[in-house]
Design a protein that fits this description.
Layout (H helix, E strand, L loop, with lengths): L6 H8 L6 H10 L5 E6 L4 H13 L4 E5 L9 H4 L7 E5 L2 H10 L3 E5 L7 E2 L9 E5 L8 H6 L2 E4 L11 H17 L9 H15 L3 H11 L1
Parallel strand pairs: 1-2, 1-6, 2-3, 4-6, 4-7, 5-7
């Protein structure tokens, strides 16, 4: 659920959590980004998709976009380890709808693929604009429409006999590498103050027992 940003609401909810909780939320949000995001297309094994969510949270990615035109994704709690409650999960029923929406928001689509053709190695992936890391299904990879809508193809160099990685491993490697690159850049990758406030309220409501009712009561009195 989305909440309107308000320092007054945050101050009210803060009295229901320990003194350490609010500084922890602030520290996490200072490293959060929507400049870099992830989209997964028909990743049908719940443990792989949930591992991507977990990596996203670990590396400061706020939004994960899930395309479900062939299979429905369900969070595996044993793998995600609670990451789903801190991530903003966006669901789509078609690849076209997802990638079109992201392009309209100014994202370039970086498709991770083994398909032959001109491609960019991970180290050389440009981050001069907001970027979506697009990953496909375990066996078949990305669909043809995903390849057609991508702005560039990306691959992770490998030197062994096996030349493919598990999709969740690929995502974790890419996220670690690119977030470190982002942190060292001059790009405006951080969340806005309004976004930070809205997420602070959302997370506090989840942390506080009966948090939603407590907030509703507060708003009703305003």
């Amino acid at each position: 659920m989305k909440y309107r940003a308000s320092s007054e609401i945050i101050s009210y909810l803060a009295q229901f959590v320990s003194d350490q909780k609010l500084p922890l939320i602030e520290a996490v949000l200072n490293q959060r980004t929507r400049y870099l995001t992830v989209a997964i297309e028909n990743v049908y094994q719940p443990h792989n998709a949930s591992a991507i969510l977990r990596s996203g949270d670990c590396f400061g990615i706020q939004d994960i976009h899930v395309i479900e035109d062939q299979c429905t994704y369900r969070v595996n709690p044993d793998i995600a380890l609670g990451a789903a409650q801190w991530i903003t999960l966006q669901r789509y029923t078609s690849t076209i709808d997802c990638l079109t929406a992201l392009k309209k928001k100014g994202y370039q689509i970086a498709a991770f693929t083994l398909q032959p053709g001109p491609n960019t190695i991970l180290d050389a992936l440009p981050l001069t604009q907001k970027t979506v890391l697009l990953f496909g299904a375990e066996q078949t990879g990305l669909s043809q429409i995903a390849h057609e809508m991508a702005d560039l193809y990306v691959h992770i160099p490998m030197v062994g006999f096996t030349r493919s990685l598990n999709v969740s491993v690929s995502a974790a490697i890419a996220l670690h590498h690119l977030t470190q690159k982002l942190y060292q850049s001059n790009y405006t990758w951080q969340l806005t103050e309004t976004e930070k406030q809205a997420l602070t309220i959302e997370w506090l409501v989840k942390i506080i027992p009966r948090g939603k009712k407590i907030l509703q009561h507060f708003l009703a009195e305003k």
